[in-house]
Amino acid sequence: MKIPHSIPNNVFEAYRCSYETTRLSSEKERVLRSEDVLWDVDRVPSLRTLALHVLAVAWKDNHPIMEDLPTSEDRDKLIEILPVDLPFELTIRKIEEEHYWERCSRDKWETNELADHGNSWRRRYCEGVFCEYLESLEPSFFESQREECEKMIGLVRNYVHAIRIRSLRPTRKQKSLDEGDDPCHAEEDIVHHIPMALVLPKLPRLAEIYVNFGVIYMNDGFEWRDFQFSIEDCLELGEAVKACPKLTKFTLCKSSLDQPRVAALLQGMVANNNVVEIDFSHCKLADKGAFAIGEFLSMHNLQVLRLVNNDIGPRGVAGLVHGLLKKEPELRHLDLRLNPLLDEGVMHLCAYLLRTDRLEILNLSGCGIKADGGAALCEVLRSGCNLKTFKLDVSNNDFGKPVGEMFEAAFKSIPFIVRFDARMCNFSAQSEYSIYESILR
């Protein structure tokens, strides 16, 4: 007897006999065992069960039967035995039961983080299949695949809320010159990818985008051009973001995103005021790229900005702060980890802290800050900021013991600090313990 998927496993476990109970003499002589799910293994299946197996085998060839079945038990049984390799264009229209999409997802992928997909197995499968489809598209021949792409979008458009593209194929490399050809006539080998402006706006419920320009499987050998992308790609992506009214989060990490490319990307993004979170971590923005983002911040109500490991120095931070102070600050979370801000960069951030009451999280871990920058940050926090709640991470900066004593004394009278991470800052053990106790209070 197979337990239906509609009954949680915890229900069966609640009625399972304990090991001690099964060893009782009265239990050994009991004939009827209702908790035994294998009692009918050797019995001939019922006619109804055989009929359902026939329907499952011939489901895609005949008219798909689901609602025509007389009872819900029959429908549940059919969902449990339907093959998971049925044509997607057929199942997405005819099957709504989550259990079937759970079976399909577990059969296709080893890892399924359902929380990342709104706790919906149908959405998880549609988003996964669609992302893999986009990753497999050949940009050099996109026009010939455009009709097929639009058909695929039509199938999943109501179920895709987030896109996580791990890799994108680049255009094919142009042929090398033959001997005797004039090198002046050679065309520049510019790497392009599929036009996102023709794909993403057709997804009306799209709320999150994660894109990585690069490849993860080197089937044809390694080339640096596989990790490059053009300014035209950024313009296309910016126009796509502009046309997605429900988009709130955008992530482009681990790429060669520099100042010209981020400027082209932000041209379109600035028109979409619904985007509240941007992540450009582990790119190549440097100071000039930070200037472009600062100009974007002066025209947009961004709330979360992550710029981890982008080689942003003091001049770049000055550009960010200048853009933030051009209008009423709305930023709540700023992550500048692993950037060489130095003491001068912290001075610019201190000026921003004195003028905002919205910032809640600031991460300056591993930014090369010394004692002068740490002392300035401590003085600003003690001088009476307008912050309501504040989480600060300054770990892995060489502040020294005197700065640790300054933070220890300051935090005894600062009520808005709810988290402070100062690991590997060369504070004394007494200062670290006192700071921890002050934050707990």
TrEMBL record:
GO BP annotations listed: nucleocytoplasmic transport
Annotated GO MF terms: GTPase activator activity; small GTPase binding
GO cellular component: cytosol; nucleus; perinuclear region of cytoplasm
Superkingdom: Eukaryota
Residues forming coiled coils: none
Pfam families: LRR_6
InterPro entries documented for this protein: Leu-rich_rpt (IPR001611), LRR_dom_sf (IPR032675), RanGap (IPR027038)
PANTHER family assigned to the protein according to its UniProt record, in alphabetical order: NACHT DOMAIN-CONTAINING PROTEIN, RAN GTPASE-ACTIVATING PROTEIN 1
Protein name: T-complex-associated testis-expressed protein 1
Protein source organism: Dufourea novaeangliae
